[in-house]
Amino acid sequence: MSISTGNGWVQLRQQTRSLEAQRETLISQLTRLLDSESLLTASALKQNNLSRHRETLLDHRHTLTRLRSSVSESRQRANLLSNVRSDIDAYRSSNPESAEADYMLDERGRIDRSHGVADSVLSQAYAVNEQFGVQREMLGNVQRRIVGAAGKVPGINGLIGRIGAKKKRDGIILGGFIALCMLVFLYFM
Hints:
By secondary structure, this protein is mainly alpha-helical. The protein is about 95% helix and about 0% strand.
């Protein structure tokens, strides 16, 4: 991968240099042409055109200078980054204890983050448990009020007793049916 990246940089540098050379050649040709034209012409229109062309030439020279400086800065930045990376890699390869210590520190950071997540989940679970306790108390209070009201009104205790008996009977019937289904299932397995 680094070989292809290195070849890419070499090709890019060659292209940049060839473009710079072409632009310099064009600017020098334009300068010679403008200088030769200024000696040959005397009309005001041609002089006006020559001055505009010289302004354009000056703009191109400024652009070329600016592009050269930005390319130079980019090269310096790329060289600096590659030097820093190579220094870091060299340090890590020459000092395996430090690399191991860095790995252990990174691992400790990951463990601390997972502990933080576990702590937040536990705190949420404790909050839910507390809410369940509050709801249990509230339902217990409602049940006590209903039982208290039922004790005051005659006939409701009998109705509640019959409902409870029906629930017990339905529970016994349902339990027997489930047991029968399980036995049939086990028999045919």
